[in-house]
Write a structure and sequence with these properties.
8-stranded antiparallel β-sheet; alpha+beta; single chain; 43% strand; 9-stranded antiparallel β-sheet
């Protein structure tokens, strides 16, 4: 193998693929990135056996070949090279080493043969559709913060994607919940997605996909079966196993009888919550909302830290209400609202609260209250 590639191009590809590789591996080959080059391109592949990323980028290839090299070490070396330098990767195939050159710098890395790398032949994926990268990014970003990190309820450790409705009202809906809050976002159902099964995309896959979507303006080809999902860009393919479990009936926890509506300027509310929660205990992060006609009083009280209150103007015309929430959950939701105003729809101090974006009917959040 003998190739030359611009440092920035190699860096970009390595930054995408190496993050899939676990820092600790009992199987040595899974610590490596697969490097394959021929024609005018080099393809990098990394996998943890559940999630696989493959990226192809242009390169000057003098001698085609394939090998695997330590992913994180290679990334660290390239990251520390100066901008604009040309990187050379060479291997004779019989030394078990790859030589990396850049300017006057030279590194020799141990390699493992291509033949030892796991076979990545994909299963058939009968459902396939395209959607704009920006649309897919919004779908993910508006819901991913609510993914559960509790491993015992593994079926909540991802985003639930499914098709809803028929005809002109058909949507692609994403839902995530950790039991304390629920995030739901929907967009127009792409052509070809009507027959898709409901699938749970794992948290790690969601995180890697978000990186690939950042700043992208192309269409993404989404393909899936009951057990796998694939996201294909022009030069990157991300393939992942799906969570084998049943997502709970989330519709049951979305309240339908809440009748006390409060509208508040989003930025003002978020800033007030952030200030008042400075006093809240680090364990509970509890903030009390006292709502009355035209006013919202936010307060936090901690035996060790003291107390804080702040009052802001709101639109509210129902009976007075006091209700407590986790401040971080309030801020997470506020940060996802695209409009200037947020609408809170309460029932009582012990029931779930709806949070809506006044400028968008596509997004809906449910937040469980807490005792304060």
């Amino acid at each position: 193998m003998d190739l030359r590639i611009e440092r920035q191009s190699l860096m970009r590809s390595l930054s995408h693929v190496q993050s899939v590789v676990e820092r600790r591996n009992t199987i040595p080959i899974l610590s490596n990135v697969l490097i394959e080059c021929e024609g005018g391109a080099v393809t990098l592949t990394a996998t943890d056996m559940d999630l696989t990323i493959t990226e192809t980028t242009g390169a000057s290839v003098s001698q085609p070949g394939a090998l695997t090299a330590p992913a994180h070490m290679l990334f660290d070396i390239v990251r520390k090279l100066p901008d604009g330098v040309e990187v050379g990767l060479t291997s004779s195939g019989d030394t078990g080493r790859m030589t990396l050159t850049a300017g006057k710098a030279r590194f020799e890395l141990s390699t493992l043969p291509r033949e030892d790398y796991p076979s990545l032949d994909g299963a058939s994926m009968p459902i396939s559709f395209e959607m704009p990268a920006e649309e897919l990014k919004t779908l993910i970003e508006r819901t991913r913060f609510a993914i559960s990190t509790e491993e015992t309820r593994y079926y909540l450790n991802g985003i639930y994607l499914h098709a809803m409705g028929e005809g002109a009202s058909a949507v692609l809906r994403a839902v995530a919940t950790d039991g304390h809050r629920l995030a739901r976002f929907e967009t127009v159902l792409p052509t070809g997605a009507a027959e898709m099964p409901g699938v749970i995309v794992p948290r790690k896959t969601v995180g890697e996909l978000a990186k690939l979507l950042d700043g992208g303006d192309e269409n993404v080809r989404v393909s899936l079966s009951d057990s796998r999902i694939e996201f294909r860009f022009s030069d990157v393919t991300l393939s992942s196993k799906l969570i084998d479990g049943t997502f709970p009936d989330y519709e049951r926890v979305i309240p339908t009888a809440n009748d006390k509506s409060m509208s508040v300027e989003k930025a003002t509310f978020a800033q007030a919550v952030d200030r008042v929660s400075t006093i809240a205990s680090s364990e509970s992060r509890a903030v009390k909302l006292g709502v009355s006609a035209g006013r919202l009083n936010l307060s936090a009280n901690s035996p060790d830290r003291g107390q804080a209150t702040e009052e802001i103007d709101v639109e509210y015309g129902s009976t007075d209400l006091e209700i407590g929430f986790n401040a971080r959950y309030l801020l997470d939701i506020a940060n996802q609202l695209s409009g200037d105003s947020a609408e809170f729809v309460f029932a009582d101090a012990g029931s779930p609260t709806l949070v809506k974006d006044k400028d968008s009917a596509s997004v809906l959040y449910v937040l469980m209250p807490m005792r304060v």
